[in-house]
């Protein structure tokens, strides 16, 4: 043992900071990290509530917005600035873009022509449409197809531009030509290319255009559609019951997006005049706006988001209580340490910061872990449900910020209890 | 004035179940710079309470206390923390090292609270560890070293900020007799270098290492006399 006395001792008192010093944050974070890592199982269990809460929020919201944006894309794929005039009662209900089979067809071709005349300056296209399911045959192959009869404007209005060949023309329609634009799956199933022939109800049609693969878009998939000129349809394929000059709906593309709302109103007035209806309750038609469908979708999404936010809030609250609980236990367990630190010169504020940083580190760490798990879950569930999850930065930040807030809010009480301990009591604690 | 510590008529009362109990019934004590004082007495004599008041861990109920010529009875909590940090170097019976920090970090802790920059802190801590002869263990955790070594670390920790008083509460209470003597010799060496040392103990052999022996009994000073035969530890 050496007891050599060092005569020269570094002068330390000059370095003591005058403002009261205090522990630098980096040091505090280091101490907190050590306390958390020193007991990993307990730390994980402490933050389990926050982990599950954050993971649930991120997984659910990203799946939800993934599904929403999928539907939104599909709706937009149906055409831009799209208005639909369709048969139906006055009530504004009814699904958008859904196949309207039976029911009384009240829209006449004369109505459509009158509208085209009246609104020619404000619309870029109008396409009266009828449709029914017919089996299409080519040789020994066949497929159940949705056969649509329309005008050439259909290509523009419903965003159905053929990938190969071209859409039929106005002349084709006027000449009642037996030509058809076919969907991607019709072409592959019937082994058809442009110029090929197939039969609908025994009538031979020529393929003039093939549509691109639009994906399996669920209802009324464009891939199984066959579009033929309306006049040909009426003459050759129309149902016995339906009168020749009525259609199930007319799709209209507005020129100006900002005029769409007004155009919708004006179309309703024009239709009311054409049908000589004075009271909206008597209207035998609907004029729907694509934006209506989008906004009702957004409404659903907003409600869903609020609902998820509520669930998240509750789970984070529960998680926060879990953290507070363990922090209180931790303060009690570490009363001795608090006493030692106070004897060595820690101010109440130093102790407060130490425990607060620890609880924030716990909750933020739990938030990070939860975010990672949530993203993983969203990707996993997304691939199982065939949804591309949209992981929003805002939901990640929100969950993260909320968990940090939980750490501060629920960590403050235990930390202030620790800070208020009297050194003499804390040291005496067994 | 060379008085580093001056207590005048210090009373400390506790209330236990509404009944007043006086642990100190009026103690006056003056310690001069560079003295090595043993504070002795049986359990219940009030020596631990006196130690806590001297160390600013507790405040007197009545009486005056001047440390380094400054009245410390009116300090607020932050000022008391700072005074403990800079003026008192504690050495406890149970060592009281921070279990998750290694030896070097333990010694650095008071300097962290004093706001000393990292580089100086490290240098100063290594100097203190060398001073107590345990610099080679700086990387170890407290659980990896012996009791005597732990107490050396505690002494090193108490030294770093050049305190007015080294205040040791039963510093050898948890040590065997050989190690106790080693620790006492360390205190004597520090005393010889000029440090003011107060050792609270109930063991006469430990008290005999000091220059002056103050005895308490039932909350009052019983005797205060110089030690004619100082026991040399080394």
Q: Could you characterize what this model shows?
A:
The complex is a heterodimer of chains A (430) and B (234). Chain A is an alpha+beta fold and 430 residues long. In chain A, 52% of the residues lie in helices and 16% in strands. The longest helix of chain A is centred in the C-terminal third of the chain and has 44 residues, at 290-333. The radius of gyration of chain A is 35 Å and the shape is elongated. The two termini of chain A are 34 Å apart. Chain B is α/β, with parallel strands linked by helices and 234 residues long. Helix content of chain B is 33%, strand content 29%. Chain B is built from 7 helices and 10 strands. In chain B, the strands form 2 sheets. A 6-stranded mixed β-sheet of chain B has the order 6-7-8-3-9-10, with helices on both faces. In chain B, strands 2-1-4-5 form a 4-stranded antiparallel β-sheet, covered by helices on one side. In chain B, a hairpin with a 2-residue loop joins β9 (212-217) and β10 (220-226). In chain B, α4 (118-131) packs across α5 (147-159) and α5 packs parallel to α6 (177-192). The longest helix of chain B has 16 residues, at 177-192. The radius of gyration of chain B is 17 Å and the shape is globular. The A-B interface holds A 1-3, 5-6, 9-10, 12-13, 15-17, 19-24, 27, 31, 34-35, 38, 336-337, 339-350, 422-424, 427 and B 52, 55, 57-58, 77-78, 81-82, 84-86, 90, 92, 96-101, 109-117, 120, 123-124, 127, 130-131, 133, 157, 160-162, 182, 185-186, 189, 192-193, 234.
